Amino acid sequence: MADIERILAGDLRAMARAATAIENRTAPAEALLKELFPHTGKATIVGITGPPGAGKSTLVDQLTRTLRGQAKSIGIIAVDPSSPFTGGAILGDRIRMQSHHADAGVFIRSMATRGRMGGLAAGTFEMAMLMDAAGRDVILVETVGVGQDEIEIARLADVTAVVLVPGMGDDIQAIKAGLMEIADVFVINKADQAGADRLELELKAMLQISPQHGGLDVPIVKTVASEGQGSCEALDAIFAIKAAKSSDGVGIWKLRLREMIRERLLERLPLHELDEAAVGVAARRQNPYAVVEEWLSRLKLTS
Length: 303
Ligand SMILES: Nc1nc2c(ncn2[C@@H]2O[C@H](COP(=O)(O)OP(=O)(O)OP(=O)(O)O)[C@@H](O)[C@H]2O)c(=O)[nH]1
Ligand SMILES: [Mg+2]
Fold this sequence. Notes:
The protein is an alpha/beta fold. It contains 13 helices and 7 strands. Helix 6 (120-133) runs parallel beside helix 7. Magnesium ion binds next to helix 4 and helix 5.
């Protein structure tokens, strides 16, 4: 059986091989994704994002437990931003997720930045497409909401849950605006700690004046992930949003098509030459507009 058929049949080894190819961005991965594409579009992709240590992995673990109880198959993508904020955190995630390691219904991969340019969101989306084609019902993507990459990843999800914790106090003002905008649902985790009610009130007040949310009802769910409390409510909210959005995916594909073309173009440019040009431009020896025109003409893309 060819790899593609094995993947479509949900074969774990074939999925693992393909996942590695996607991580390493090899040419065969692209050919594979092209063949898998017609079989995608069935899974629900859920982004779980929020500040470091908010309990995202614990929540993902609990959501997985609940969904497995409903006989749903799960894909988990832990995005490792390799940032100074979270160094080493991924190891803890892997250890925690081992509670599912014997369960063939839970397929877990991590995506590392590895310093690549702008490709983290794309790679994460491709990983989700692989899991989707392999028949996973729900794909949970955990990212730390600290950078642009993470926000882009959230945009590729069907539903994004932003996990916050009490005790942030006045810091709520400091929560990255970008993070607030991408929330389809807020999860107040660690609701066993003081301040959960206050955080809820603050969130509600903020949503009322937020231009993005325009006073819309963004559900707020309280959880104690470490005790498994609230995961059913969180899932109910997530699936209700998914149903209400009945997202046709056009928004996602507008982004993805632009990204794919940008990536292909950049791949065709020897980047060291571009870096050299940057030196020339910074010293005002070269003109950036002329540089771009020259590159486009080399790619035979000028009008
Ligand atoms: N009290 C309390 N602690 C919790 C709760 N949920 C998670 N924790 C604890 O919070 C700590 C961080 O949890 P993680 O799930 O690793 O948090 P995370 O958001 O994935 O962390 P990073 O991936 O490093 O950003 C762990 O020690 C958890 O046991 C909760 O509901 N209440
Ligand atoms: Mg984590």
